[in-house]
Design a protein that fits this description.
binds zinc ion, mainly alpha, 2 domains, 14 helices, 5 strands
């Protein structure tokens, strides 16, 4: 049969749109849309010259039983697929919005970097209240809104790819334990679009504060491992001091960055402040693509039986 139903995503999935590991690792919990039995994916002609045939099949079923399902599944239309996808997308987004700030912080405390536990609850409280940090945060918010509103979904997706490239090895490995990259990106794109709506402003602030701290950790790690990016001398002191410095001194520090020419480092006209902004934006995109959507979906299913 051509379609399977993902219990996890609440969507009908076409066999040729599902990667093998998604099925074999049971990442989506795919079942027969007619009888809800577990099914598996078959690819026929995979190694011959003929076009490959992708389909789902029951593990075991008597012939009559399977063909009954076959008949019912073959009557599924694209309209049914779209309707379910839209419903489940809206529903998933609801779960994420409710959980977003908690999930961002949990991701921060997570596994692939042991430096994060140094940054305590009181550190984040200082960040939230700092008038100086809010200067940068507000500036970044304006840019983020403009960027997301102007980009198509494909462009946002490409932007995610670009930022995944900048991840460290452990971070990439951590990411590979999640849903397939296509699904991670689709959900992250929905979230990015949600974040530019006015009611999501507190979530954006939370995302920014964690991106700010991630970038500091990344630069500190560069110093520790002596793999310098060239930004450490100028940016690291600013990231460290900004949260506790007065607004007046903060403005002075930012103005200094603006006068620090990085054209040679980047082979394009830019200064340390624009590079800082780009780096923070990159960290925000990395957090969005890294969030454990699979776990969130699972726990939302666990607490909402029958949905
Ligand atoms: Zn069936």
């Amino acid at each position: 049969m051509k379609f399977g139903k993902s219990l996890l995503l609440g969507e009908l999935l076409k066999a040729d749109a599902v990667d093998h590991p998604d099925v074999s690792d049971n990442r989506f919990w795919i079942v027969c849309p007619a009888c809800s039995e577990a099914i598996f994916k078959v690819v026929r002609n995979a190694e011959s010259d003929k076009p490959a045939l992708h389909y789902f099949s029951h593990y075991e079923a008597s012939k009559s039983y399977a063909s009954d399902c076959e008949l019912r599944v073959s009557s599924i239309t694209q309209h049914d697929v779209d309707r379910l996808a839209i419903q489940s997308r809206a529903q998933k987004l609801q779960y994420f919005i409710a959980a977003l700030q908690r999930v961002i912080h949990e991701d921060f405390l997570n596994p692939f970097d042991d430096q994060t536990h140094v940054f305590t609850e009181s550190y984040f409280r200082v960040l939230r209240r700092s008038g100086t940090v809010s200067l940068v945060r507000n500036m970044m918010y304006e840019d983020f809104v403009k960027l997301i509103k102007k980009m198509s979904e494909e462009e946002i997706s490409a932007f995610f790819d670009y930022n995944i490239e900048g991840m460290g090895q452990q971070e990439k490995e951590y990411l590979s334990t999640h849903l397939s990259m296509t699904t991670q990106k689709r959900i992250a794109t929905d979230l990015a679009k949600h974040l530019v709506t006015p009611q999501a402003r507190p979530s954006f602030h939370c995302l920014f504060d964690h991106a700010f701290t991630w970038f500091r950790i990344r630069l500190e790690n560069n110093v520790t491992t002596n793999e310098l990016s060239g930004l450490e001398n100028d940016l690291l002191p600013v990231l460290k001091k900004l949260p506790t410095t007065s607004r007046k001194k903060g403005i002075f520090m930012l103005a200094n960055l603006q006068e620090t020419d990085y054209s040679k480092l980047y082979n394009a006209k830019c200064n340390a402040l624009t590079i800082l902004e780009q780096a923070l934006q990159g960290e925000m995109f990395r957090i969005l693509i890294r969030l454990p959507y699979l776990d969130i979906l699972r726990s939302s299913l666990a607490t909402k039986p029958g949905t």
